[in-house]
Design brief:
rod-shaped, five-stranded mixed β-barrel, about 300 residues, five-stranded mixed barrel, alpha+beta
Length: about 300
């Protein structure tokens, strides 16, 4: 009887990644590991302690993070990284989900976390929505990277917020296998945790507020200028009206202080001394009354 291919010797993921180019691409290889992320029924990542590996399944299989599996597939290369295609899996047992390893963006840039489940903090610079995909552009120090989620729903994280993202680290390599950058493949929305929300006073809102304040100030200055001109015009009209009256007119305020008069009053009172503030108000009133009586 034909032997069970799952009984073949398993390779470590690290050896497969380091020496994969020496492997016959038409020959099946076997690896054993724990599922770190199940992105969909035909795509999963596994790890065995030596490294991580992308596994593309032949048939739809319901895998869960923490499942220990044997994977039998054909090595292939994608962006300089070995993966398994047309893979059959055998679940050995279930276990708790793998805890993401906290790393920095600097560490991710070395390529040592390739295909592993990690968590990285970063500041949200922007968001982008495409059909079936949500992308966050993040920054940590001088490094920019993206977090990509293909699970349904919108990522509701305000720009400027600081988040901790757990996901599979995937590096971009040049022709000499040197890391150029990296991204995180996020298995679910729950893997994006907001640590600190952005301040309501964003730079854009500050500029808007300054613009509104400037417009309001300009409007107030113009309105005050218009009111001042109208008051001056009405004052001149009142003064002209008073001067046109043949009787003497004296205007005092609530305290009895003289605030206005016409030239006819000065003529009646024989000069400006009385109404010019040279005497006390009660004295001014008495003198004016005496002079007005004498004038009659």
């Amino acid at each position: 009887p034909e032997s069970d291919p799952f009984n073949s010797e398993a390779l470590s993921i690290d050896s497969l990644q380091r020496f994969g180019f020496q492997t016959d691409l038409g020959k099946q290889v076997k690896v054993t590991g724990v599922v770190t992320a199940a992105l969909d029924p035909t795509t999963a990542y596994i790890a065995d302690g030596s490294g991580g590996l992308l596994v593309e399944l032949r048939d739809e299989v319901s895998l869960r993070p923490g499942d220990q599996v044997q994977a039998l597939g054909y090595p292939a290369f994608e962006h300089g990284i070995v993966k398994l295609e047309d893979t059959s899996v055998r679940r050995l047992r279930s276990g708790p989900p793998v805890v993401p390893k906290p790393i920095t963006a600097e560490q991710a840039m070395t390529g040592e976390a390739e295909s592993l489940l990690v968590s990285i903090e970063g500041k949200v610079l922007s968001r982008a929505s495409l059909p079936g995909q949500e992308t966050l552009v993040l920054q940590q120090g001088q490094h920019l990277f993206t977090a990509i989620s293909k699970t349904p729903g919108e990522i509701r994280v305000p720009e400027g917020s600081t988040v901790r993202v757990a996901g599979i680290c995937v590096n971009d390599f040049d022709a000499y296998e040197r890391p150029l950058g990296f991204k995180l493949i996020v298995p679910s929305r729950a893997d994006i945790l907001v640590i600190r929300r952005a301040s309501w006073w964003t730079l854009e809102r500050v500029f808007v507020f300054i613009g509104i304040l400037a417009i309001g100030t300009l409007f107030a200055v113009c309105w005050i200028a218009i009111l001042k001109r109208e008051i001056n015009e009405k004052t001149e009209a009142l003064r002209a009206t008073i001067e046109s009256i043949e009787e003497g007119i004296l205007v005092v305020d609530s305290s009895g202080a003289v605030v206005a008069h016409n030239q006819k009053l000065l003529h009646i009172c024989h000069g400006p001394s009385v109404v010019a503030g040279g005497v006390e108000n009660w004295q001014a009133e008495k003198i004016l009354v005496d002079q007005l009586l004498d004038a009659d």
